[in-house]
Fold each of these.
Amino acid sequence: MKAEAKNKNWLAYQKEIANDKYYFARSCIRQNVFPAAEDVFLKIIGQELSKDIYDDARQTTCTGIAYHSGIVPFETTMTVVAHQFALMNEAGYENFVCSCVTSFGIYSEAVESWHFFPDTLKNTREALKRSTGKTFEIPRNLVHASDLIFKFREEVASKAKYRLVNAQTGEPLKVVDHIGCHYAKIFPEKGIGGAEYPYVLAGLIDEWGGAQVDYPERRHCCGFGFRQYLLKSNRGYSVANSKKKFDSMKPYKPDLIIANCPGCTFFLDRWQYTIAEMEGETYGTNGYGIPVLTYEELAGLLLGYDPWDIGLQLHQVSVEPLLDKLGVAYDPTNKYKGLYNADLGRPAMPERLKC
Amino acid sequence: MDSLIEKLKADFRIVEGLRACINCGTCTAICPAAGVSDYDPRIVVDLVQQNNEATLKELLRSDTIWLCGECLSCKTRCPRENVPGYIIQALRSLSIETGLFMESKQGRKQFALKRTIGEHILKYGYCVYIDEVNTEMYPEQGPVWDWYHKNREQILERLGASYGKEASGSLRKIPEESMNNLKKIFDETGATKRFEKIEEYGRANAQQQGIDFGPGNTCDYFKKMYEE
């Protein structure tokens, strides 16, 4: 199928995305592994696009990782979700945007459960009231943070300093988009483009000048598996599924992988390191890996933010091959510095993966 | 006393996840777990819809129900709108409620999950927190994590995070009111009870096997559940 026809298919799934006034919910994983990414997102939405987005100190986890690992009952998760919505109500917002794809699935699953099983809504309201004294209203608009970047992709492009184009050759960079399973596989109608042809990241690639890579395992899970990754004994599940994707995409020689789920971004970065060290196999060129970015890191990079101010030094797969292709100016001596150029040493080098 | 079948059917995820399976195997074809382990969601769904008490009990005490990765790819593709991933959630809940989870190696591993992500939630307000992640437990984090972990205060300061601070932002200290609310919600809705049950069964199992048992993630029993 030609790309134009596929894009028409993608457009069959659209969703409402509020234009302004958002309550922002942070991610357990993204905060830790990519600790600048959410603030890049807030800067783009709040400062570059002049939208009202609220970052509440009182918010917490949604417990989604624990729920999907079988540690907490769904009744607990629904009530924690209700608590998050109550905090949003108290702050005066009605549009909820979350950073985590697992959370997006959790919030959507709770709302759907309340709709189709009204007793669960009644029970959740009563449990929240008894435990915290709070009441809540369901958000008018519930979206993932990548939905907002998609909605404003043209505005981002108009302000961008760089495009997804090889600065030397003028050719579009080849970009793999990886969509977290819980973005649209649970509720296809809640994802831009649905589950089979999600367009939420492909639309960024198209708008920002890159070329999509359509490879056989494009829709396969990264392999998080919740309890499968979180237990050291079970982790083979995770790396095996990521490897299936890497082996499938390798012949297309991608310049970059982008993902909207923090877990997926982490796994696609770290399992390349692991596979290189264990098997000696690398997926980029000349012994490097394929750089893996979150959507907001990519947007920040194209907007001209310093790569070391947005945390790209914390990726295990080196991002320099991508920076060089994009023509991004960067100071290699500043990569591992702290605040005010403090010398923090540098990480040890992997034995096999070139960094 | 309710039968296992009655208890399972009382879970709305079974109502939602199991209509009538036609055994087409589409779920198995798309399943990431089926590709890397002896897991077959088609068989799980077929066993559940047999409505046989003994068969259900065998399933609840088996490793099988713990092999699913909850990606929910099965939900997208099932032509009859069954959701094997939801059925698995209901089976796991019932397995813990009845204590049958202790009869499988994978079920016993819930102890290590409770001791890590479960306790992180009530300590930090999030499932994951940088202070608890090291390359001994997570070697795939790589040398960049060792450098980041060692220098986290300075690095997070440079990146504008609020590490350990009473403010908004990444990795902040969650206000006491929110932490108390999380604990009260856990008490009210069954999570605390589930945690206690996993702990009690774990302690008894450790004693039975003569394995060192203590708090946190340094005792021999935790390591056995986490690593082996």
Amino acid sequence: MSNEIEAIKDPGLPAHVHRKADTDPKAAKRAERQVASMFLMSAFGTVLLIFSFFFIPDDVFVFVPILGNQNAHQLGLGLGMAISLFFIGMGAIHWAKTLMPDVEVVAQRHEFRSTDSDRKDFVSAVKEGAAASGLGRRSLIKRSLGAALGLSALSPLILLRDLGPLPGKELEKTTWKTGTHLVTDPGNRRIKASDLEVGAVAQVLPEIEDPEHRKLSDIAKDAVLLIRLRPEEFNLEADRLAMTHDGIIAFSKICSHMGCAVALYEQQTKHLLCPCHQSTFDVTRAAKVIFGPSARPLPQLDITIDDEGYLVARQPFSEPVGPSFWERNSQ
Amino acid sequence: MTTEARLGSVANYVDERTGAAAWMKKNLQKVFPDHWSFLLGEVALYSFVILLLSGTFLTFWFDPSQREVIYDGSYEPLEGLKMSAAYASTLHISFEVRGGLLMRQINHWAALIFMSAIVAHMMRVFFTGAFRKPREGNWIIGIGLLTLGIVEGFLGYSLPDDLLSGTGIRIAEAIIQALPVVGSYLAYFAFGGAFPGEAFIPRIYTVHVLLLPGAFLVLITVHLMLVWYQKHTQFPGPGRTEKNVVGYPLMPTYMAKAGGFFFIVFGVTAFLAAVASINPIWLFGPYTPGQITAGSQPDWYMGWLDGLVRMAPPIETHAFGHTISWNILIPGLIIPGILFTGMALYPFIESWITGDKREHHLLDRPRNAPNRTALGAMSLTFVMVTLLNGGNDIIATHFDLSINQIMWGTRFGVLILPPLAFVITKRLCLSLQRADRELVLHGRETGTLLRLPHGEFVEVHEPISPEKAYLLTSHEQAPPLELPAIDAHGVKRAGALRNKLRSRMSIANAEAIPKVSATELKEIEHH
């Protein structure tokens, strides 16, 4: 291509056009007044902020079009601060644009590469230094230093060991045991099958001795959702049907995808939906995943009633609840 | 003493001890090119300063502890509820500390502006080719800042320990836990035991207010020093070359403009914080793992990741007693990893394709680099589709749509739309090049119709200025690399497949509408 030869010529920087303020002293004076009034506006903003801070109580509301009812104290503080800052900036820029020089200047660039002689000197300096230290010749020093540096990197790793305990089998266990009573959350009351109407949903937790001090890390594994359907609405294998009681089915409320609380129950379709990533589980088919990213159904809790008719767990969860992890045996 | 003499004695004191005058005299006259798009990086820098200032204010009252307290503050709906000290102190900042809510909202708005400005700045740098030699290193630092910004923002809005942010932490824990082999160990180390525990908020507080801001300060300093040392790029135009830099001197014009602009950014952020509520944590309630708010949404810079996770197919591998969650690993780690690595390596990939190892200080007009522009549009489309899916629940409820259809739409969309965007953008760029060519050759359409003596109507075209003609033709149109399988010495080139790929990409990259040459223009003028 011969573009280089035939290229259209660079006409050079366009001639500078003067602004009005450059030539007309009146315009310059006007620009000066404009700048000063912006700085004054900023001062007003600071006064508004101080006034709002000390004199507007925080329970006064004012109606502002578009924004609706606004807390006057907050609005005064915020607008005061905004005005005080914004107009300093506007003033400075207006000053620069109208009164400071606006003639473009040209500076030259230089290639970053050092000259060949500088490069040569540099290389020989490095070589001399390396030779003087004997790093190349004394391989014993080189290797032992490498080993020492590598090993010393272990100490911060070792020192961080106590950040947390080892997980052990903890991820696989919940508080649910054979015969653990289901209690309401909130309320901590035992419940009977009759407390739950058909179509109703309830969040339950395992009964513990000291419910006042229930740990969040336990709730993160123990939370269970009870749903009552008409028994004929189930579409379950016999062993799963046996885990329900009188139309009441219990699932872990902790999503099998990423552990969010699966809290949205659609009564019409009998679907459970996780609000985080929209994994959808079909309650009538043992929480089978029918949509979304989750790869496993919600674990089902085997429930029955005790002698007094209160709902209890017949056995613990048969699989770990919540999101997957490497050690989880999902077979 | 006059003012001048007093200043003089201070300057003398400093200069006798540092010799700063020689350096300052040169640099006070340093030239900065002017263009609105060069302000985007400044917005990011200023937002960072605002974040430091407002964040420091918040630390004076925030109690980064997951110790359980009973709320007895002035916000009545939560009276008597059990919550963490972190949440209670955030409520205290919002309702009892005067100006506290304003500062919280400034901090959060500034974070959103910070991330938006970084992304917009990166788009400017990408689409104009400002990342080319010698600025590849600074581009990589930029990618580092973007990545840290995403983490820092996430940690920041996780600190209040409200129901929404706690859910976000739960998801982060699930991602850590999903890592093969080490996942559950890392999760237990990060959380000091089982999720949520009492260690996480204090730990991320240290990271949020100390470690990451420190890393930001170092990276931003290096980023700016490089901009200073390498001098800013400039847009092409008459009088601007690869060898010069045209603009305003630092003192006074640029200083006043840049300094003033800081106050404008701060003022606008304060205005947003004054009138637009953000993250009203008192409405969400304290975090408990058994509850959730409907319509859980992360901030926008995490939204595309959440959207990817949402659209992931439900795949897990169960084998030999172990589980691998591809539905978490692919969208949560693998795809973002590929995207960010690709972004970081792009300057080197492009120079490999073009074979261009020269310094570049003049920016490209995006149309004159159709392949790069198309690639950028493709990536943006990818992120937009995933971001859209990150808000699929909100979109479904607001527009009365089916969430399942939106999800399926974006699942296909994320595969189909980005390549489509590539093709369309490339064609658009070539069309714009064609329009430029027309403009230089035949001038501007004036809209004035002329009737010729024999009755024909023609539109009068007005030639464009020599400045404009130069601008539209000053770009380089390099031919593709010539990489025949057998080289000049008759030797077969090594890496046949690699060469073929490079050659193909080079040909595609060099596709262009030939720009007007001086001879062509002269011929037209003679007619």
